[in-house]
Amino acid sequence: MGYHYSVLLNETMEVLDIHPDGIYVDLTLGRGGTSSAILERIPDGHLYSFDMDQEAIDESEKRLEKAG
Asked: How far apart are CA 12 and CA 66, in angstroms?
């Protein structure tokens, strides 16, 4: 997989109005950029992330372990 960065990440986080104890679902996990940003903001919350691409899931696991 090539390098990818989350487009409009800051705008997405603002629109989601993340709460520290919230429950969130990411249906397009990809490389985990958005999920990682959500995890950093929800120390007492839950995040469920999904993707149909097993390679994307495998790659994102490394990134998400660091985020929480």
From this structure: 21
